[in-house]
Specification:
This protein has a domain of about 70 residues: Thrombin, subunit H, CATH 2.40.10.170. It has one helix and six strands; from the N terminus they run H-E-E-E-E-E-E. A hairpin with a 4-residue loop joins strand 1 and strand 2.
Length: about 110
């Protein structure tokens, strides 16, 4: 079976238009890694300075994490030494104003 010439030209044009490693912009600042998802804040007690985070994997006491809302950093928390109750862990608010529903990540 012989392919029509216009189809061959179309395929060749599509392949020629693909990006190659040499096309990368050296001035672009790509992050070397993406933060790891830790969990979601389910309760906030600003009067007592802590949050409750629902985590698929429980962090270690003393670890810090960044809190994001709609892609913006809004707080930093530190997981405390209180015994976690899986899948929940408490954390002290180091800075910012987290809300329930915010995403928690770690580098």
């Amino acid at each position: 079976m012989r392919l029509p010439t216009p189809l061959l030209l179309l395929v060749a044009g599509l392949l020629a238009g693909c990006a190659t490693p040499g096309d990368r912009d050296p001035d672009r600042d790509d992050p070397p890694f993406r933060d790891t998802y830790v969990g979601e804040i389910v309760k906030v007690r600003p009067d007592l300075g802590y949050v409750v985070v629902q985590c698929p994997r429980l962090p270690t006491a003393g670890e810090t994490a960044t809190v994001f809302r709609e892609g913006r950093r809004v707080a930093v928390i530190r997981f405390d030494a209180r015994p976690p109750r899986p899948p929940f862990h408490t954390a002290d608010i180091e800075q910012g104003r987290p809300r329930a529903g915010d995403e928690v990540t770690q580098p």
